[in-house]
């Protein structure tokens, strides 16, 4: 699967997740699905370059580019999603 073009808003770095980790999370995504209640935004669960789970929130631009606005170590409430297959 080809990795989408990815851009990161400044807010994506609030929790000290690096751009390299964000790109790696997209490559290693175990879960990627529209967010409940807001189908225009997506929740992706993937892994950092250190193999720690990350939660990434993004929306798609008109050209298909993923615009990441949130990235942080995966919270416990999202860990069960790792047992689901990638939906995209």
Q: How would you describe this protein?
A:
- The protein has 88 residues and is mostly beta strands.
- Strand 2 and strand 3 (38-47) form a beta hairpin.
- The protein has a single domain (6-83), classed as Nuclear Transport Factor 2, Chain: A (Roll), CATH 3.10.450.
- It has one helix at residues 19-27; strands at residues 6-8, 31-35, 38-47, 53-60, 66-73.
- It is 10% helix and 39% strand.
- It has 1 helix and 5 strands.
- A 5-stranded mixed beta sheet has the order 1-5-4-3-2, with helices on one face.
- The mean pLDDT is 91.
Which terms summarize this structure?
single chain; 88 residues; mainly beta; Nuclear Transport Factor 2, Chain: A; 10% helix; 39% strand; globular
Count of helices?
Answer: 1
CATH topology: Nuclear Transport Factor 2, Chain: A
Structural class: mainly beta
CATH class descriptor: Alpha Beta
CATH architectural grouping: Roll
Order of helices and strands: EHEEEE
Helix content: 10-25%
The whole-number mean of residue pLDDT values reads 91
Q: How large is the share of residues in beta strands?
A: 35-45%
Distance separating the two termini: 10 Å
Number of strands: 5
Backbone CA Rg? 12 Å
> Total domains, how many?
1
Strand arrangement in the largest pleated sheet: 1-5-4-3-2
Q: What general outline do the C-alpha atoms trace?
A: globular
Oligomeric description of these chains:
single chain
Are there runs of 5+ residues with pLDDT below 50, and where? none
Largest sheet: 5 strands, mixed
């Amino acid at each position: 699967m080809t990795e989408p073009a990815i851009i990161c808003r400044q807010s994506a770095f609030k929790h000290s997740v690096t751009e390299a980790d964000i790109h790696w999370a997209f490559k290693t995504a175990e879960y990627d699905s529209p967010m409940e209640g807001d189908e225009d935004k997506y929740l992706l669960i993937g892994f950092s370059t250190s193999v720690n789970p990350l939660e990434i929130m993004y929306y798609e631009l008109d050209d298909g580019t993923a615009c990441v606005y949130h990235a942080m170590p995966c919270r416990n409430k999202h860990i069960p999603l790792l047992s689901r297959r990638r939906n995209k």
